[in-house]
TrEMBL record:
It comes from the Bacteria. PANTHER family: POTASSIUM BINDING PROTEIN KBP. Its main location: cytoplasm. This is Potassium binding protein Kbp. One of its GO terms (cellular component) is cytoplasm. Pfam families: LysM.
């Protein structure tokens, strides 16, 4: 008679096992659960880091979905809010930060700068303030995330506060 071809996963389950489609669905569900657990752990770690840095945010809530982090809560002031955004955004795996925080004490909004190869705080200060010697303002604006003015890296995003005259 010869060989006949059939669709392996179609028809009655006579062996008591699962079809490939059922196994794939279970694996996908397991993978989704693992991703959700990893996102919860990452959000908890970010919250702990923000707390350890002394950044005051009431009812801080961070959620992560794929490469997007959403932040809710009430920051003490604008600079705290911006620093929280930077802590979260400068974390591996985060490409977008959805900032839904409120601010208790308003102040001028800072600009942001993404560090490129060859940048230094003095070069950035020259670009934004016209004076390379104003680099300490940028350093201070990014504490406690920065611990040394010479330790910045390409891809890092920094706060550039309005200049102090």
């Amino acid at each position: 008679m010869g060989l006949f071809s059939f669709i392996k996963d179609a028809g009655a389950k006579i062996f008591g096992g699962k079809t490939s489609a059922e196994e794939a669905a279970e694996q996908a569900a397991d993978k989704q659960a693992a991703i959700k657990e990893a996102n919860l752990k990452a959000a908890a770690s970010l919250s702990e880091t923000i707390n350890d840095l002394g950044l005051k945010v009431e009812n801080l809530d961070i959620t992560i979905s794929e490469d997007t982090a959403t932040i809710r809560g009430k920051a003490y002031n604008q600079s705290t809010k911006e620093k929280v955004v930077l802590v979260v955004g400068n974390s591996a795996g985060i490409a977008v930060v959805d900032d839904l925080m409120e601010v208790e004490h308003t102040e001028p909004v800072a600009r942001f700068h993404t560090v490129v190869s060859g940048d230094s705080l003095s070069k950035i200060a020259k670009k934004f303030y016209g004076n390379a010697m104003k680099y300490p303002e940028i350093f201070e604006a990014n504490k406690p995330m920065l611990t040394d003015p010479d330790k910045i890296y390409p891809g890092q995003v920094l706060r550039i506060p309005p200049t102090k005259e």
